[in-house]
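Preliminary data (for renewal application), adenosine-5'-diphosphate complex.
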Amino acid sequence: MKVVLQNVTKIFPSRNKKSKEEVVAVNNFDFTIPDGKLVGLLGPSGCGKSTTLYMISGLQKLTSGKIFFGDDDVTDLSPENRGVGLVFQNYALYPHMTVKQNIMFPLQNLTGKDKLTKEEMLSRTVEAAKLVQIDELLDRKPSELSGGQQQRVAIARALVKMPRILLLDEPLSNLDARLRLQTREEIRRIQRETKITTIFVTHDQEEAMSISDVIVVMKLGVVQQIGAPQDVYDDPVNLFVAKFLGTPPINVFSGKVSGGKVYIGDSEAVADAKGVPDQEVFIGIRPEGFIVDAAGPLTCTLSGIEVMGRDSSVITTNAASLNPFIRSIIDSDIKVDPKSEKVRFSIKPNKIFIFNKETEERIRPEVK
Ligand code: ADP
Ligand code: MG
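Predicted structure:
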């Protein structure tokens, strides 16, 4: 089931009677979520992710715009009638009920033509439990489960009604690091098996990048960029997106374009910028974009080397860097003398981006 968001906007009135300042939580969100895909909705806390999800689920009313599931306009439909499964960060299972009863609960409220027999409810419950691999635990109480197992019960409970759309709001944030990794793979598997269109909200870029077919990056209620994770990483539209994606993060410098070349501080030209007018710019270089090169144009002061197996992280400083340290990832086979004072780099042309100093929008040189 595709989900169409048409100019979806949510404005919250001011909570403070004295000030009239309203909050534009979601501003003109316009996007069609393709059928059967896992979409990662990504951005810092407060950027409007949950509000977007609640509007899709029907828990929040839109201020303006429309939402369609397939061709059905669901904008004014109540949450019960939308056929969505919702999983929250605080998965809040009923403590006095067993796992089986927790999963079955949503089915017991079905009425009319949707009403199920006891047998049908049980078989749907077992099926959902199998899907999330907790069918061995059906008779336990939530307190007898690990955090990861509890979250699976919550997912099973969302799946048992066979939703048209699955909405997950930061479902992994209460889990420890190892479980987070494992559970996100599980979510990916379940989504592939069920092919339910799924929207996965997270503030964790790595989480979103690793499991999403498509990521949507938001900032202050406004969608910044939509695309396949690798495409957005390789081709960010602005400095915010460039900085938000990637670990270690992109290295940012102040510099300039002059005569169609890019300069960092007083460096030699580090890249071409054909057709770009002379101006001050921000320059972003991905950690993997540095090549140790005795004749390279960018000279930095060596601060340390961390060997991480296959790769090394060469940590340097430069007066034009906006971050205290520059982190470059290079092949461990390439030896940098830890006693050397300076390291010179050349820069891979596809790993360096330039941005307008005022708007922070990407500036794209002409391709040669
Ligand atoms: P996220 O999930 O990305 O952290 P939210 O969607 O929860 O962000 O919030 C987006 C913005 O809307 C924030 O500025 C938040 O304070 C505001 N907001 C959210 N819910 C309400 C509400 N019920 N009343 C007023 N403001 C709200
Ligand atoms: Mg939220």
